C-alpha cells in the first residue's frame, strides 16, 4: 500500500470542556509534557499534510497563542458559536477555500492524545486504497455508552450510518463498534455534503456524521478502518480520564525506553515526558520523574525519588534523591542525596554535589567537590577545589545578583560566607568560619573572623531560674568541687614531700585515725 499524503488535516478544538471544571481550556491540559491538542498535532504532523488547520472557539486567544508557540505552521479557523462538529469543519474549509481542497482531508479531535500518527496513516491509506468518499476510523470497545454507533449493512458490510448515543434506538445501543470522531474525506465531496447537513436532531446541531448518510445516498462509497487498539481513540472529558490517559501514555514511553536499552527498575513508579531521550545502559530507580527535554547518558544512574526537568545527565553520572531543573551534570559526576540543582547549573566531569546542597547558575569545574550543607549561587568554581560544609555564596545585595569566583585547587574552610562580588585565587585556603568580603590572592590563607569573647555569668544574670541557669549552676558547683579536691590533693602532696619519713608515717597514721580506718596489722 502506498503512503498517502493528506491535502489537509483538520483538528477540532473549539469546545469548552465543562466537565474538566477548570479555567484552563480542555485542549490545553497537559499529560506527559505536552498539551492534549499538542499530542494530536504531533500525530497529524507525522503524515506531513499539505495544510494543518485547528478549529478554535472557547478561549480561542489562549489556544491560538499556544498553537503559535507549538507550531508556527498551523492555521486556525474560528468557530464563534459551537453549533456542532459539522459546523466546525465548515469553518475549517472556509479557511482552506469554500470548495474544499482537492485530495484527502482528515478530521480528528483535539482531545484524543493517545491517537498515533501510525493509526492516522493507516486511515488515510485505507481511504485512498478503497476509493472511498469517506472513511471512518472505528473501534470495538467493551462499553460503548456515550459513543456514536457504527451501523453497517447486514453481515457487517459497508457503513450505512453513524447514530449518536442520544439518538440511538435500543437495538443500535447494543452495537459495540463505535465512531472515533476521526474521518478521512474526499475534500471536494466533503465541502458539498456539509452544505446539506440539517439540524433536526436532539441537540439542534450540525453533525459531521450526517455527511456519511448524505454521501451514501448520493451513491458514493462509505468505508471504515478499524483501529488496532481501541484505547487510542479515547477522548478526554474529565480529570479521571486525563489520569487514565496519562498512565497509558506513560506506559508506552517507559516501554519504549526499556526496549531502547534503559533499565527501569519499577515501571509503575517511573514517569517520563514525551521529550525525554536516553542512551543504552542508563539505569532508572523507583520514584523517578524525567520531564521536559531531560537526557540520560550511557551508564548513568538516576534515582530513587528524583525529579529531573530539562536536565542533561552525562555518561556514568549518578543522581540520587535530587530535584534538578535546567541543569547539566557532567560525566562521572555524583549528585545527592537531597540535592537541588536550579537553572543554569553546570557540573563538570567528576564533580560532587553532595547532600543538602543547592546550586543556581553555578559552573563547577572538573573534580571539584561541594560535599554538603551549602548554597552555591551565581558562582564559578575551578577544577579540583573543595568547598567546606555549611558554606554560602552570598549573591544578592537586595537589588542585584553578583558573581563569586573561586579558583582551582582551593581548599575552603567550613562555614564560609562569600559576599559577592569576590574572587578567590588558585590554590588559596580559607579558615573555618570566615566571611570573605575581599579578594583572596592565589596561594593565600584567608582568615576573616572576630576574636572569641566569653561574658561569664551572663545566663545567671539575664536568665535566672531558667533550665540553662540551673544546669550552669550545677556544672559550676561540680567544677568547684573538683577544683577544691584537686587543690587538697596538691597541698597534701606538697606537705608529704617536705616531711621526713617518720613524720610522713605519723601523718599517715594520724590521717587514717581521723578517717576511722584501722591499720591492717592491728586488725
Low-confidence stretches: 510-523
* Largest sheet, strands/sense/barrel: 19 strands, parallel
Which band does the percent of strand residues land in?
25-35%
Shape from CA axes? elongated
- The helicity comes to 25-40%
State mean pLDDT (0 to 100 scale).
Answer: 92
EC number: 2.7.7.23, 2.3.1.157
Protein name: Bifunctional protein GlmU
Region (Linker): 240-260
Cofactor: Mg(2+)
List its salient traits:
disordered C terminus; 37 strands; 523 residues; 19-stranded parallel beta sheet; elongated; EC 2.3.1.157; repeat; 27% strand; seven-stranded mixed beta sheet; nucleotidyltransferase; alpha/beta; multifunctional enzyme; 27% helix
Describe the 3D structure:
GO terms for molecular function: UDP-N-acetylglucosamine diphosphorylase activity. Keywords: Acyltransferase, Cell shape, Cell wall biogenesis/degradation, Cytoplasm, Magnesium, Metal-binding, Multifunctional enzyme, Nucleotidyltransferase, Peptidoglycan synthesis, Repeat, Transferase. The chain has 523 residues and is of the alpha/beta class. The chain contains eleven helices and 37 strands. The strands form seven sheets. The protein has a 19-stranded parallel β-sheet that branches. The N and C termini lie far apart (121 Å). The relative contact order is 0.06.
Topology:
Elements: E1 8-13, E2 30-31, E3 34-35, H1 36-45, E4 51-56, H2 60-70, E5 75-78, H3 85-96, E6 104-109, H4 117-130, E7 134-140, E8 149-152, E9 159-163, H5 170-173, E10 177-186, H6 187-194, H7 210-217, E11 222-226, H8 239-259, E12 263-264, E13 270-272, E14 277-278, E15 283-284, E16 288-291, E17 295-296, E18 301-302, E19 306-309, E20 312-313, E21 318-319, E22 322-325, E23 328-329, E24 334-335, E25 339-341, E26 346-347, E27 352-364, E28 369-381, E29 386-387, E30 392-394, E31 404-406, E32 411-412, E33 417-419, E34 422-424, E35 429-430, E36 435-436, E37 445-446, H9 458-462, H10 467-498, H11 501-514
Parallel strand pairs: 1-4, 1-6, 4-5, 7-11, 12-15, 13-16, 14-17, 15-18, 16-19, 17-20, 18-21, 19-22, 20-23, 21-24, 22-25, 23-26, 24-27, 25-27, 26-27, 27-28, 28-31, 29-32, 30-33, 31-34, 33-36, 35-37
Antiparallel strand pairs: 2-3, 6-10, 7-10, 8-9
Amino acid at each position: 500500500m502506498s503512503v498517502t499524503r493528506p491535502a489537509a488535516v483538520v483538528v477540532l478544538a473549539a469546545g469548552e470542556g465543562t466537565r474538566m471544571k477548570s479555567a484552563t481550556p480542555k485542549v490545553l491540559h497537559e499529560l506527559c509534557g505536552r498539551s492534549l491538542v499538542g499530542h494530536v498535532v504531533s500525530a497529524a504532523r507525522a503524515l506531513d499534510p499539505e495544510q494543518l488547520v485547528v478549529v478554535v472557539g472557547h478561549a480561542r486567544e489562549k489556544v491560538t497563542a499556544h498553537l503559535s508557540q507549538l507550531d508556527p505552521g498551523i492555521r486556525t479557523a474560528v468557530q464563534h458559536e459551537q453549533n456542532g462538529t459539522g459546523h466546525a469543519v465548515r469553518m475549517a474549509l472556509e479557511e482552506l477555500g469554500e470548495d474544499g481542497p482537492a485530495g484527502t482531508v482528515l478530521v480528528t479531535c483535539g482531545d484524543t492524545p493517545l491517537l498515533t500518527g501510525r493509526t492516522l496513516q493507516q486511515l488515510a491509506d485505507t481511504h485512498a486504497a478503497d476509493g472511498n468518499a469517506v472513511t471512518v476510523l472505528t473501534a470495538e470497545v467493551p462499553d460503548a455508552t456515550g459513543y456514536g454507533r457504527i451501523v453497517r449493512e447486514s453481515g457487517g458490510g459497508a457503513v450505512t450510518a453513524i447514530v449518536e448515543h442520544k439518538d440511538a434506538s435500543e437495538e443500535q445501543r447494543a452495537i459495540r463498534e463505535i465512531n472515533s470522531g476521526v474521518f478521512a474525506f474526499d475534500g471536494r465531496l466533503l465541502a458539498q455534503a456539509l452544505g446539506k447537513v440539517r439540524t433536526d436532531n436532539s441537540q439542534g446541531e450540525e453533525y459531521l456524521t450526517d455527511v456519511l448518510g448524505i454521501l451514501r445516498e448520493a451513491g458514493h462509497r462509505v468505508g471504515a478502518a478499524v483501529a488496532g487498539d481501541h484505547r487510542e481513540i479515547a477522548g478526554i472529558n474529565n480529570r479521571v480520564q486525563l489520569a487514565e490517559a496519562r498512565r497509558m501514555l506513560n506506559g508506552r514511553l517507559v516501554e519504549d525506553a526499556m526496549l531502547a536499552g534503559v533499565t527501569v527498575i519499577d515501571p509503575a513508579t517511573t514517569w517520563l515526558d514525551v521529550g525525554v531521550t536516553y542512551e543504552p545502559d542508563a539505569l532508572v530507580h523507583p520514584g523517578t520523574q524525567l520531564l521536559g527535554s531531560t537526557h540520560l547518558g550511557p551508564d548513568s544512574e538516576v534515582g530513587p525519588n528524583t525529579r529531573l526537568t530539562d536536565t542533561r545527565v552525562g555518561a556514568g553520572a549518578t543522581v540520587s534523591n535530587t530535584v534538578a531543573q535546567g541543569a547539566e551534570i557532567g560525566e562521572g559526576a555524583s549528585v545527592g542525596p537531597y540535592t537541588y540543582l536550579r537553572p543554569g547549573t553546570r557540573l563538570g566531569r567528576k564533580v560532587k554535589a553532595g547532600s543538602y546542597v543547592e546550586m543556581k547558575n553555578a559552573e563547577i569545574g572538573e573534580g571539584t567537590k561541594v560535599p554538603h550543607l551549602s548554597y552555591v549561587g551565581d558562582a564559578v568554581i575551578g577544577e579540583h577545589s573543595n568547598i567546606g560544609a555549611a558554606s554560602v555564596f552570598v549573591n544578592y545585595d537586595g537589588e542585584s545578583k553578583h558573581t563569586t569566583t573561586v579558583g582551582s585547587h582551593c581548599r575552603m574552610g567550613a562555614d564560609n560566607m562569600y559576599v559577592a562580588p569576590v574572587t578567590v585565587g588558585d590554590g588559596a585556603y580559607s579558615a573555618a568560619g570566615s566571611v570573605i568580603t575581599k579578594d583572596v590572592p592565589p596561594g593565600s590563607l584567608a582568615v576573616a573572623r572576630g576574636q572569641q569573647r566569653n561574658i561569664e555569668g551572663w545566663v545567671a544574670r539575664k536568665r535566672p531560674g531558667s533550665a540553662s541557669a540551673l544546669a550552669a549552676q550545677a556544672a559550676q558547683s561540680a567544677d568547684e568541687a573538683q577544683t577544691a579536691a584537686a587543690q587538697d590533693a596538691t597541698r597534701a602532696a606538697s606537705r608529704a614531700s617536705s616531711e621526713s619519713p617518720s613524720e610522713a608515717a605519723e601523718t599517715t597514721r594520724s590521717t587514717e585515725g581521723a578517717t576511722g580506718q584501722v591499720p591492717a596489722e592491728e586488725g
